[in-house]
């Protein structure tokens, strides 16, 4: 990777420290997160660790946190990416909130003791969650309240990475997205879980509301990367830098990707998941911005018919726009396979009302693959 590590950032994101964090996070992925109860996917774990390393290379620092931690599978990896000077934040209704009826949709069941147990397993028995963690053990809807402004949730440094995976009904997910957008550091990332799940349409609707009602000009957040489960959003200031980095990395194996990002040659090699062997993305035009879409496995069971797009005209835009530097020039026509969930999400996001025919094709303009040798 070409970008230098940052020695002048407000956290210790020197090459050495960032590499140690990437390596630690990778070990937590393999030893803890994949074995803890929860719903994490290898693809999201690889991308989360890599994106954190990309952030550190660009000198982006800040707090790391999650709304909706359940038993800490994803949070343990997020926490492991933190370098010196970065703080941890967790919000969940936990058992008390469950009893009081705040876990409305039962998308998970946060348990404080199991969460702490996972963290000690991941970060070492010496890790003291009560002391080292800013905890908001209540419904995330309260984060907007006036009294919350005096708590760590507001006074700690703005977020480098914040996972939104709490209540999955529209009103809660929308409220969480709004809060996240307001608490993000420049170059921070928000990872929204279940963004394309037919089981949790509230999250897709919340995203649509966010981009159509609250952040119409995308001044706060821009879509950056979408896996089959999560969408990662970032601030406009760093959108093109990250696109470039993702593009450069997206034709190798997940394991090599992490080695390159500082994990080192001695990283344990996982088995039994295609994503460890191949990580690829395709850039698409999405609500007026470039979004990197991870390609589902070619023989995956949930693929919709391939979407054919015509990228003529986009080439001109590519030439005009400096942020496109590092991304291959669009070529004439291109196909991309997307999951049904993704298709539904895209449809929901481009229009609040029913989508006129052809809009999907217009929205899904494709720029071309990152790795020119793989273009058709
Ligand atoms: C899908 S689970 C989270 C999974 C977790 N991120 C993981 O990686 O395993 C959703 C979590 O959100 C919590 N939750 C539900 N409604 C909430 C709310 N309004 N505020 C905060 N947390 C909430 C639940 O207790 C549950 O732990």
TrEMBL record:
Q: Which InterPro entries does this chain map to? A: SAM-dependent_MTases_sf (IPR029063)
Q: What is this protein called?
A: Class I SAM-dependent methyltransferase
